[in-house]
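Q: Could you fold this chain for me?
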Amino acid sequence: MSKVTMMGTFTCRDGKAEEMEAVLAGMVEAASDEPGVEIYSYHRGEENTFWFFALMADEESRQNHGQSEAMQAAMSAFGPLVAGPPQMTVAHPVAALGLDV
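A: Sure. Below is the predicted structure, expressed as structure tokens.
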């Protein structure tokens, strides 16, 4: 089994950063109840820029992420606030090293 990381950045619409922070806090809360989610966090950068990081126990956890009712509700509020598609990277860092953690 190998861990999976998801990292990304996105920009929210002008004047929506405070609302975006509230939505992201709801997403973090919803993700805490999802099986296999080990870390789920966001960080606000300059102005309207946000950074995202998640660590999943395995690929199955990543694929199932976002299926809960709470996460679906939080994610529906996210879409109207972003200025464009998030730039995301998914990696399997432990598998790349040949380790079985």
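A (continued): The mean pLDDT is 88.
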